[in-house]
Amino acid sequence: MKQHLKPIMFVGTCSDAGKSVINAAFCRIFKQDGYHPAPFKAQNMSLNSYSTPEGGEMGRAQVVQAEACGIVPHTDMNPVLLKPTNDKNSQVVLNGHPIGNMSAKDYFGIQNNKESLFKEALLAFKRLEARYNPIVLEGAGSISELNLRDRDITNMRMAIQVGAATYLIADIDRGGVFGSVYGTIALLRPEEKAVMKGILINKFRGDVSLFEEGKLMLEELTGIPVVGVIPWFRDIKIEEEDSVALDMKHNTYRDGKINVAIILLKRMSNFTDFDVLDMDPRFNAYYTNNIEEVEKADIILLPGSKNTLSDLQSLRANGIADAIIRSHKAGKKIIGICGGYQMMGMRLEDPDGLEGNIPAVPGLGLLPQCTVIEQEKITKQSCFVFLPAKSVHTETKPICRGYEIHMGRTTLVGKAPESPVARLEDGRMDGYYLNNYCWGSYMHGILDNPVVLDSLAEGFGQQTSAVPFDYEAFKEKQYNKLADLVRANVDMENIYKELTTI
Prior knowledge:
single chain; alpha/beta; six-stranded parallel β-sheet; six-stranded mixed β-sheet; globular
């Protein structure tokens, strides 16, 4: 049996310093070294979420990290998830299940509430620690937000409570790395600094050896060793945590590819549904809310949204809704997933104001259905058959996988016939298939299935690849490449020493 290791935690000088990706790298490193690691983040704020096999909801960053560990995701890895519904309010998901909406003022201002959530987070951590070794924790944002320190349940308070060897990650690419690292360390309380075991400089461009003098300066300034300088990379594809990553995905139309315009929504959720398009060489995917870019595309994808009615109103106001309808009439493919699927119908209703103060809006009118937002939230993983009605021999069709996260009930209008996109393993039917150029589904992750990708490519002269694109195998290769890169640029002997010191 492998030696028991202390928990290890990665915190940041700022948001988007690379904590999630570095965490995933160490998850894979520990797995490669014969340990049985698991990720943990007490509180995550994200619209990218996932349904576990038990039907709980958690942030996708910890799903990626669980994949790197080679284990099944569980809500204990992310016990508190905040899903913003607008600029001031978020849905609070505790241990996989929604417990209501809260304003930021209420969430951060009610001390009893925060204490209760911290206790729940600790219980989740202890359940994980009983089964895995080591636990690889991730902090949130910056650890030097002094106004939030006493209400913290994610960063240094958690590190101290669980005795985690803690490493500070700084993004050198954005500049000011000396000030951000020194300032962050200087603002720590003595008990917080005591658990800080090292500094990691991330996203270094150029010759890493040129930073040797900088490492010595930082160590002298802070009294903490710089245990690694990790190079900037573009050739390793790891799923990003949140919409900050979309800043790097504003491609544009490219000749010789199947061009896919993904509509950029204000409250877009689960944009990771489309990551596979970046890996499959047949496609050129780009995120846009530009009318010209939308109309040039071969395929238009409508993503999910945490505030579907409001986002649809915005699409009407900025002209994108009309551009989608014109594209449909011109024979372009229009595909909707989850909230995007709801938008494609005749009407959306929110009679109880669950999303906001808009009671109803007309849909795009592409599919014969109406959606009503309801209190019950469906979070469920499913196996399914894609387009079961297209062949009587459905038993020979490949089994696909996906997951649902939605609060809407969608029904057909008038005498529209049933025409499902998927037949689920529990007998339910999902989505509506008008034809190969217009369909929608509630199923997140549907494009990760090769048969669906081939259907998406159909009609463009590239409908099938010689070897079906294996996204799971591709991701495994990426985790190994990431681990190799980090291992080569980090003092792993120092880290293992800290994790085994009593």
